[in-house]
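Exercise 7. Predict the structure of Fluoroacetyl-CoA-specific thioesterase-like domain-containing protein from Pontibacter actiniarum.
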Amino acid sequence: MIKPGDTRVYVKQVTAADFARFDDGLVHAVCSTFALAQAAEWAGRLFVLDIKGADEEGIGTFLTINHKAPAFEGEEVEFIATLQKHEGHEVICSYRARVGERLVADGETGQKILKKEKLAKILAPKQV
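Solution. The predicted structure, encoded as tokens:
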């Protein structure tokens, strides 16, 4: 049984695929805010994987990220997700992302656990 204060850990190694790039090219050769956000959401999802039933799936509801410092190619970023709330279908986590003692990012993630059948209806393209 999970409870507030429980943690899950995800470690991501920074690669060139994580660099900040847009249509106009490379912005900088460090881990992008987008890549950090994706890893942060995965760290929170580790709780969803523990909770959801075979007929359920998680869907993201919100994500906040405070990008504090760079993470360089080859470095390992450790994401520690801490369960803040699991109430009904809602799972809220805070997280901290570090390279050693350097705080790279922190924030919160929200996910909701729904029946796969209901989720398929919500995500189905609307007929015009």
